[in-house]
Amino acid sequence: MRRKRVLPLAALLLCTPALAGTAPAAASAHPSASAAARPTAPYGPDARPLRILLTNDDGYTAPGIRKAYERLTAAGHDVTLVAPLTNQSGTGTKMTGGTTLAVRHPEPKVWAVDGTPGDSVLFGLAEVFAGRAPDLVVSGTNFGPNVAGLATHSGTVGGAVAALEHGVPAIALSTGGLTVPDPVTTVNAMGPTVDFAVKLIDRLRARAGSGPLLPKGVGLNVNHPVVGADGTGTAAGVAATVQDPQTFLEPDFTDSGDGTWKVTVKVVPRPAVRGGDVEAVSAGKIAVSPMQADWNAGPADFAATSALLAGLRP
Question: For a tag site, which of 91, 107, 195, 227 has the least CB within 10 Å?
């Protein structure tokens, strides 16, 4: 993803005291993918509530998405939850691709899709928001971090990518440090995570004017650390980051001798890249990484590839 090209956007968002270095605190249907990039009303302080499609990869009943639903609704937004029926962690950008899809509507404003986060977002855009796209897709908050290589395979990030592919601004939210998540403290830290998300969305609205919340095709991957013994502590600050290229998880395969292999996975942390999301979360900061839905490597790498191919013929 061409993160370097869009990094100034995140830096601009985070450069003023309203977000940078402050405690995360709470701020006092039917649309179409084709209409996604066209705002229907200004995003100023007195604008109408944002229409938000909320999804995740932990499942529609998970505590993270329920906290997000409550806090975003309390902040005045019109939130519709369209999320997987079951836990879909680690599914990345996968789409089911079947000929049928089971969908439940167990509560008002809540849809449960028996598929991946991507399936949920696409169903939400095509059916729940048919004819008028949401202003924003929020995916999460996820149980555990989605930094470095974890983000590449994250269903939470995958849900945001599905939105970006259809022209809808998106934010992926994750809560967790760089160790195995503790259930109690991580769930507690989801409160500050969503409080920060409310502030971030307010910032986007204030800066958008009459335009879209984010530049077309650009989303934000937000990782909030677990701070304090009970997880409710204040983050040390906010950092505009790039995705650290390292991978944390390394599989080991042992031949069982019967045509099957036993798979174990170990966590192998490596030195953090300067300016990356791992460095920020390790320092107790909230990492905000701009991202795009495509896999373009950027102008420098494109130029290098062009030079490599010079004179090459079939």
Answer: 107
**Structural domain count, the chain:** 1
Is 264 contained in some domain?
A: no
Domain limits at 178? 3-246+272-309
Residue recorded with tokens 């495509």? 294
67 has pLDDT over 50: yes
Using DSSP's 3-state secondary structure scheme, residue 124 falls into helix
Q: Which pLDDT does position 39 carry in this prediction?
A: 38
- 254 cis-preceded (ω within 30 degrees of 0): no
Asked if 281 and 178 count as a contact pair (C-beta separation under 8 A), the reply is: yes
DSSP tag of 34: G
Lowest pLDDT segment from 23-32, 126-135, 149-158: 23-32
Q: What is the pLDDT of residue 49?
A: 87
Question: What average pLDDT score do residues 264-292 get?
Answer: 93
**Would 265 be classed as within a structural domain?**
no
Q: Across-strand partners of 81?
A: 54, 110
C-alpha 188: how far from its chain's center? 19
Beta strands in 110-209 (DSSP E): 110-113, 136-143, 170-175
Distance CA 288, CA 188 (A): 20
How far is residue 17's CA from residue 23's CA, in Å, rounded to a whole number?
10
- Please tell me the distance from the alpha carbon of residue 161 to that of residue 168, in angstroms, as a whole number: 9
